[in-house]
């Protein structure tokens, strides 16, 4: 049982639960990522009941990747509720992602089908604010 991976999945669960409902799409997305991280469905169910605290992500790539997974989780049901937006913003700031980057990503996601920003565009946004 990898506590770091469980903490990452826990963050996704917090986002999925932010609007007070978890859709099948959100659950299946989280379960799919958890499976790739060698976390069983039973462990995921436990994390839904008792999420672990966030872990400190050390590299820029880890933070970018995790923040994007949070955005994807929020958008799985094609609805971005205000509570989810606040939760995603707070996670971003807590991870040390600049507010301008957070705002740009949340704004630009609406320009793409299914709100999925291509990875190259994500990197351009980050590079604009970090270079």
Automatic annotation (TrEMBL):
Protein name: TerB family tellurite resistance protein
Superkingdom field: Bacteria
Alphabetized InterPro entries for the sequence: TerB-like
Provenance organism: Patiriisocius marinus
Alphabetized SUPFAM superfamilies for the sequence: TerB-like
